[in-house]
């Protein structure tokens, strides 16, 4: 049974988690051990995930085959940096990237990206170079259809040749007045969204009524692996209301939770 927020061992404390590299290996499934730790943690604090990917992809990663709706395993679920938001399994109102930017500006931007990608010289190109999402657009020079092996190879290639970094710099110069933020969060792509629509966007949904959680949240912890400047966890990690924790892998996340909240040695 899930305890009401006010009856957790540390009421007013919440732990938020990035998904890729923090709760799961990049684009892979969560382990049963991680799910067990998160379940135990929920007796101590409120919990939530804050992923850059859309809900469908996060579901593929956090919901094991045959399991019930994974949104019920967390108090809050934030996909696309919080543009899609759930509280206690119920969807909250959301925003959209296309409404914010407008069709004409969006088309100009996409055409430029596709033209730029068409001129790239990289070892492998697959399909789905641009993915349109509710709260952002995701741009991938190799294409989102790349296999796990091709992803890793691209990531290594990109570390040496800075394909994504250079692409982002060109976009910043080409569209200086668009008010966009670029975030290299994963292995093969970067996310583009309105300035301020980074993971801090999710924080506005953490306001609880006095009768549900007297005094609201006093400590917001965030765990992420891309907490460096330019990484997609950086803004929420360094937000003044947030206590940020950098992790190196899902195993490290478990270890830190054991030390901080579960009083276990792993
Ligand atoms: O959650 C981190 C990133 O995961 C994916 O990135 P990639 O496919 O490049 O590994 C994407 O879903 C991206 O939007 C997200 O930020």
UniProtKB/TrEMBL annotation:
InterPro entries, A to Z: HAD-like_sf, HAD-SF_hydro_IIB, HAD_sf, PMM, PMM_cap
Name recorded for this polypeptide: Phosphomannomutase
Active site, UniProt feature: 18 (nucleophile), 20 (proton donor/acceptor)
Protein keywords: Cytoplasm, Isomerase, Magnesium, Metal-binding
Reactions catalysed according to its record: alpha-D-mannose 1-phosphate = D-mannose 6-phosphate
Entry function: Involved in the synthesis of the GDP-mannose and dolichol-phosphate-mannose required for a number of critical mannosyl transfer reactions.
Main location: cytoplasm
Cofactor(s) listed in the protein's UniProt record: Mg(2+)
Organism: Malassezia psittaci
């Amino acid at each position: 049974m899930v305890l009401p927020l006010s009856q957790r061992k540390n009421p007013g404390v919440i732990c938020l988690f990035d998904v890729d590299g923090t709760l799961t290996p990049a684009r892979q499934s969560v382990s049963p051990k991680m799910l067990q730790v998160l379940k135990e943690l929920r007796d101590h604090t409120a919990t939530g995930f804050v992923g850059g990917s859309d809900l469908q992809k996060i579901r593929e990663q956090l919901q094991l085959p045959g399991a019930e709706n994974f949104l019920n395993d967390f108090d809050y679920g934030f996909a696309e940096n919080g543009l899609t938001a759930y509280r206690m399994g119920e969807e909250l109102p959301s925003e959209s990237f296309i409404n914010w930017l407008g069709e004409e500006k969006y088309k100009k931007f996409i055409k430029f990206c596709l033209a730029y990608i068409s001129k790239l010289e990289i070892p492998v190109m697959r399909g789905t170079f641009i993915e349109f999402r509710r709260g952002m657009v995701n741009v991938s020079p190799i294409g989102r259809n790349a296999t796990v092996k091709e992803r890793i190879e691209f990531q290594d290639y990109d570390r040496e040749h800075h394909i994504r970094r250079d692409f982002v710099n060109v976009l910043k110069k080409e569209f200086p007045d668009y008010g966009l933020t670029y975030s290299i969060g994963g292995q093969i792509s970067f996310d583009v969204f309105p300035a301020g629509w980074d993971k801090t966007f999710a924080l506005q949904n953490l306001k609880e009524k006095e009768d549900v959680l007297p005094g609201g949240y006093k400590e917001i912890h965030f765990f992420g692996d891309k907490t460096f400047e330019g990484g997609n966890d950086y803004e929420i990690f360094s937000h003044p209301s947030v206590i940020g924790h950098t992790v190196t892998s899902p195993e490290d996340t478990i270890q830190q939770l054991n030390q901080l909240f579960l009083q276990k040695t792993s």
